[in-house]
Amino acid sequence: MKPRLRLLAAAAALCLGPVAWAGAPSNTDPCAGRSQASCNALGVVEKPSLQPARGGLGAAERQQLTGRATKMLEVVLQAPQFHPPKGMSLHPTITVEGPPAHAAKHHPAMVRTTLLAKLIDVENKRAAQDKKTGAWKGTGEGPILRLHVNDLGVFLSNDTLDLSKPAQFFSAPKKTGEVQGFPVYDVGGKEVLLLSKGDALPWKAFSVESYIQMLLSQEQETQALIRDQLASATGAEKKQLEKTNAEQQATLDALKQQLAQLSPAQRQAGACQSSSNTRDNPSGLDFTCGASSNPLMVANQDIFPRTAAKGSQRFLTLTTTWGVLPKDDRMPNALGRVMRASLQDMDLKALQAMLD
Q1: C-alpha span between 32 and 39 (Å, rounded)
Q2: Which residue of 176, 209, 256, 272 could cross-link 267, Cys pair, CB 3.0 to 4.6 Å?
């Protein structure tokens, strides 16, 4: 598959919406399958586990960011679903990380906080109870609530961005709803709740010129590999490589011609992948950005002011294992429903106020 076709396939995958629960209707009683003692058992809330900082952060900055994350976590834990936790124990972790590779100098550090919920089963021999407080520690795996600060990678399927790669683009996040007035976006099938104080978004349009230049670079790299193989090829293999090389050159020429024919305004416009691929359109772009096309975005480092203080926190995203928006999807995971519902009652405005 040619590079640009692989890119089309990858972007198409990101456009897939969330999958609805299609199984048989399940019992949504959070106590289903458990004793009342387990369901009503008071759960332990562990102290945050501080993960080793990454990215060469100084001790003072690391301490400041960890302190701010701890205060955000305190707000989260005031949600009625967690205060106090019943039938589950809560296990938070805080990770502080420097800017992504090749980020702009003004890109601040990132903070990732997770809150893991574990189901309490008092009849389980592995279940442990704190003798002083009577609180129980859950066992096994469970859903997670994630809070990410300054993490542009959340909008690229939660990968840590390498900002040296212009090919790291993604489909435009689509707003699918709101929670307490804050927007929720569909990001590759995941629901992401975004909190910030300004109007700037963590993404911006990937220009047509940048996109075509990226395709040219990839085609040139492919052609260089083919020519290296040609140097030692013989017979039928050489003929096939010569044919492939000619096809690569034709693609390069077509891309260069298409770029040359564009006006300055067209070059700077946002790129939109066409829903159909034709031979007379080597870039695969829809220059009208019609309703069926796929707008492409890149991370917006300009959301971070160049004059911002070190440790600045500009935006916060919240996600859970089982989504963000309330829905009657008959989800069988009891704790997943609790984590999702907590966002409806959490003091999101207090979290927003903690941002810069």
Answers
A1: 9
A2: 209
The torsion angles phi and psi of 163, rounded to 5 degrees, stand at -75, 5
Q: Return phi, psi of residue 162, to 5°.
A: -105, 100
pLDDT (tens digit per residue) in 182-214: 999 999 889 999 999 989 999 999 999 999 999
Question: Using one digit for the tens of pLDDT, what is the confidence trace for 32-88?
Answer: 778 999 999 999 999 999 988 778 788 899 999 999 999 999 999 999 999 999 999
Contact 316, 148 (CB under 8 A): yes
Q: Enter the tokens of residue 267.
A: 């070059």
Cis peptide bond N-terminal to 84, omega within 30? yes
**pTM of the shown model:** 0.85
Sign of the Cα pseudo-torsion (198, 114, 84, 322, in order): positive
Q: Is 273 exposed, middle or buried (0-12, 13-18, 19+ CB in 10 A)?
A: buried
